[in-house]
């Protein structure tokens, strides 16, 4: 079945440093989504990428979808303590599919 | 307010007892899901339902059961057959055809002692 690998599992950064998490799928994806889960909370949708090579920005967050639509990344510039949490990617394998496959997440800690 | 309501938020049960987690949504979403989250394991799909009176097994359905008698409701029963039931359970819903963007409830912590 489809697998979505996400690295690193954990990342500790000093406040102000950049952070990147990477997501790789074993199959071509129709879209990829990113979610953030704050400590003690539930996952919240951040963004969806659909097109090959697509890049989207949300303030300090930059999301990319690979040309082959099998990988994606989330980059945070100049991290802040409010960025703390676990970031999940989730891939949808094809048209008509209703099962998102989640990566295991990257847990980000920001040291003030 | 629109959203997904899970209850209870915290639940303790003795080993061997069945327990049912409630999930209600007023978003008029067709699809509903149950995920299990364990530390370091990410989110694993237990069951999902696309329409009323129909549901499909996810990746880890053994030891769980669901029903979908109403569009708004998708309760999950953790049976005594589930070997390691202690976990954080997340209910979610989505509009069919919207790229499957999922909206999560706040989750239920189940501890079996």
Commentary on this structure:
With 112 residues, chain A is mainly beta. Chain A has strands at residues 4-7, 10-14, 19-25, 31-37, 44-49, 55-58, 61-65, 71-76, 85-92, 100-102, 106-111. In chain A, the strands form two sheets. In chain A, strands 2, 4, 5, 9, 10 and 11 form a six-stranded mixed beta sheet that branches. The radius of gyration of chain A is 13 Å and the shape is globular. Chain B has 113 residues and is an all-beta fold. In chain B, the strands form two sheets. In chain B, strands 2, 4, 5, 6, 9, 10 and 11 form a seven-stranded mixed beta sheet that branches. A four-stranded antiparallel beta sheet of chain B has the order 1-3-8-7, with no helix packed on it. The chains are: A mainly beta (112), B mainly beta (113). Chain A binds chain B through residues 1, 6, 9, 30-31, 33, 35, 41-45, 48, 50, 88, 90, 92, 97-100, 102-105, and chain B through 31, 35, 40-45, 48, 50, 58-59, 90, 94, 96, 99-107.
Low-pLDDT runs of 5+ residues of chain A are none
Structural class of chain B: mainly beta
Question: How far do the termini of chain B sit from each other?
Answer: 35 Å
3D shape of chain B: globular
Helix percentage of chain B: under 10%
Which regions of chain B contain 5 or more consecutive residues with pLDDT less than 50? none
The number of helices of chain A is 0
**Percent range for helical residues of chain A?**
under 10%
Number of distinct beta strands of chain A:
11
Which series of helices and strands of chain B comes N to C? EEEEEEEEEEE
Spatial extent as radius of gyration of chain B: 13 Å
What is the CA-CA span between the terminal residues of chain A? 41 Å
In round numbers, the mean pLDDT of chain B is 92
Characteristics of this structure?
heterodimer; A: 112 residues; mainly beta; 6-stranded mixed β-sheet; 5-stranded antiparallel β-sheet; 0% helix; 54% strand; globular; B: 113 residues; 7-stranded mixed β-sheet; 4-stranded antiparallel β-sheet; 11 strands
